[in-house]
Design goal:
By secondary structure, this protein is of the alpha/beta class. An eight-stranded mixed beta sheet has the order 1-2-5-6-7-8-9-10. The protein has a two-stranded parallel ribbon with strand order 3-4. Helix 1 runs parallel beside helix 2 and helix 2 runs parallel beside helix 3. It is globular.
Length: about 260
């Protein structure tokens, strides 16, 4: 299978069956984040189009063996909201008999959430995990390296718009590295203003160009988020999962290092 992969063991989502609507050999994204586990963006774009036909996804779902999963997650080799058929694909998965009742999640860098069609596409998901790594434009550019024309304010406004409209569970993921480590208090206030259902505090534990912060540093950062519903990557359980195809999983998800950093 080249579109459906995993299940992967996710500290946020349990045994997660991945859906990759980009399914590219390189990374297709609107960002080129300094910490990305997939390496450099090979196709930088903010233009939505169909990369994988919905019929191809249907064909792979028809071949899917009977496996137990906790979540079906739209993620993979880039930014999933770039797929113009994301809404169609969510409808297909939500109504698929073998997966009916399994929660769906979309992991997004939030770059396109200002677009009403993207927010409409996400409406069928049970959970959206939206990324926000910076408290201002300068750090946004330094950490996320967005495509031309994209701004930090636009990303924040998009998350606010989704919060107003989305009936599901909205999680805010914040990735902490050396560049934003001292901004935890400001980031926490920003998180409070966005009112997510949870905040996921992350640091790059998989192979990455940016080294992870250690357990003590992440504990200090978590303290700044007091009063918010927080998950810390170092404290979350790591479930066991056996992928259908190890190579396809590792193409999207390199092996995680020790949590004892």
């Amino acid at each position: 299978m080249s579109i459906v992969y995993g299940p992967v063991p996710s500290w946020r989502l349990g045994r997660s069956l991945g859906i990759d609507l980009l399914s590219a050999r390189g990374k297709i994204c609107s960002f080129d984040c300094i910490y990305c586990q997939l390496g450099r963006t090979t196709q930088a774009t903010a233009e939505r189009r169909v990369f994988v036909e919905t019929a191809q996804l249907r064909a792979e779902l028809e071949r899917l063996p009977d496996i137990g999963v906790d979540t079906v997650t739209f993620s993979g080799t880039g930014e999933p909201t770039l797929a113009a058929n994301l809404g169609e694909a969510l409808d297909l998965v939500c109504d698929w008999p073998a997966l009916r009742g399994v929660p769906t999640a979309v992991l997004t860098n939030a770059s396109l959430l200002s677009q009403p069609d993207v927010r409409r596409n996400l409406a069928r998901a049970d959970m959206v995990v939206a990324k926000l790594d910076a408290p201002d434009e300068a750090l946004f550019r330094a950490i996320n390296h967005p495509v031309a024309g994209m701004t930090w304010a636009g990303v924040v406004d998009g998350i606010r718009a989704l919060r107003r409209e989305f009936a599901g569970h909205l999680a805010l993921q914040m990735m902490f590295v050396a560049a934003n480590r001292d901004q935890a208090a400001v980031m926490a206030e920003l998180a409070r203003s966005l009112a997510p259902d949870e905040v996921q505090l992350n640091t790059p534990l998989r192979p990455s160009p940016a080294p992870p912060l250690d357990r003590a540093a992440m504990a200090e950062i978590e303290a700044a988020f007091a009063g918010l519903p927080v998950q810390n990557v170092y404290a979350a359980p790591q479930p066991a999962a056996t992928p259908l195809d190890e190579a396809e999983m590792r193409r999207r998800r390199p092996a995680e290092g020790s949590r004892e950093v």
